[in-house]
Design brief:
about 150 residues
Length: about 150
């Protein structure tokens, strides 16, 4: 093998299409664009995403649904059974952060009823759902007035 014998592999390089060079080329006259229509015009070949030929597009036919609360970004949910794993008698936001039950980006925590609680806890400065509040009080714990139930 010598440098002067090297070349691209067969089929790796294709000759460019020479359009508009007569009927014999197969790409004469309309140059492969067909007759009329948006794709036959110069500069008009692109259609925007979602365009359905003038019909009302799908994203406009369907109703707008859903809602993402900006407050939910700052409030972390802590499940009731996760509290049961903690040893502390008094639980506040700092305790939950130390136990890595809430992310560092959270500014508040809310206790949600999932699972059971067997220990007695005093919650301070935390939010709690009505079900979680009832379960904590049934186990002998209490929620301070600073933590409202939502």
């Amino acid at each position: 093998m010598k440098m002067n014998t090297l070349g691209p592999v067969d089929g790796a390089r294709q000759d460019r299409k020479r359009v508009g060079r007569g009927i014999g080329s197969g790409l004469g006259k309309t140059c492969g664009r067909g007759h009329k229509g948006s794709f036959a015009r110069s500069g008009k070949g692109k259609i925007k995403a979602g365009f359905e030929g003038g019909q009302m597009p799908m994203q406009r036919r369907l109703p707008k649904i859903g809602f993402r609360s900006k407050r939910a970004l700052n409030v972390a949910e802590v499940l009731l059974y996760q509290l049961d794993k903690l040893d502390a008698g008094t639980i506040d936001f700092a305790t939950l952060q130390a136990a890595k039950l809430v992310p560092t980006s959270a500014k508040q925590a809310k206790i949600v009823k999932k699972g059971e609680v067997s220990k007695k806890f005093i919650l301070t400065g935390l939010l709690a759902t009505a079900g979680a509040k009832a379960a904590i009080e049934a186990a002998g714990g209490q929620i301070n007035a600073a933590a409202g139930a939502e």
